[in-house]
Design goal:
Layout: E1 3-5, H1 7-28, E2 38-44, E3 47-48, E4 57-63, E5 67-72, E6 81-83, E7 105-110, E8 115-120, E9 129-135, H2 142-150, E10 173-175
Parallel strand pairs: 2-5, 4-9
Antiparallel strand pairs: 1-10, 2-3, 5-7, 6-8, 8-9
């Protein structure tokens, strides 16, 4: 009997892990929670992020210093207007920002302080609402802050090979 170490098993494990991450990234694209220096939130007809958020709150998580860009993709007129809290009742420029009412184009705001910032569309205040959570990375590790920002999202640009630690499977032998 000859014993062979299953090195191909480790290679297969790594390939499967990379494929799973790639599928997770592809499946989560375009919802508004992208982890980067600039995060895009789509503004459609009666929703922020995507149509599944019509009538609910579109969540976005970013790090301090990041910018959110709202991108008009629908045909109706909308705004992105800051609100004082999660009741969405006191909203306007005095609460932080108030975009013009627009049917196309973009509006951007950079968030330099941690906290939770609420916003709504002034034209459709009950159908279109959002929340931006701004977090501070405490350990300075770009990978951990990227993962924190993504919340339920994992973005390929934030995965760096030097930060991946894959534990090899226990030693396995096969009889040939």
């Amino acid at each position: 009997m000859m014993h062979k170490r299953l090195v191909p098993s480790l290679r297969l494990t790594i390939k499967l892990f990379v494929a799973a991450v790639a599928l997770a990234v592809a499946g989560q694209a375009g919802s508004g929670e992208v982890s980067a220096a600039t995060t895009t939130v789509n503004v459609g007809d009666f929703w922020f992020c995507n149509s599944s958020f019509s009538g609910s709150v579109c969540p976005t998580r970013i790090a301090t210093g990041d910018t959110v860009t709202w991108n008009w993709v629908g045909g109706a007129a909308h705004s992105t207007t800051a609100c004082s809290d999660g009741t969405f009742s006191t909203c306007g420029a005095a609460q932080g920002w108030d975009s013009p009412i627009m049917t196309s184009g973009t509006f951007s705001r950079t968030f330099n302080n941690t906290g939770t910032f609420y916003y709504r569309c002034q034209v459709h205040p009950t159908a279109m609402r959002g929340r931006v959570e701004v977090i501070q990375d405490t350990d300075g590790d770009p990978t951990s802050s990227a993962i924190m920002r993504t919340s339920s999202r994992l973005v390929a640009s934030d995965i760096r090979p030097q930060h991946l630690r894959i534990k090899p499977p226990p030693s396995t032998t096969v009889l040939v």
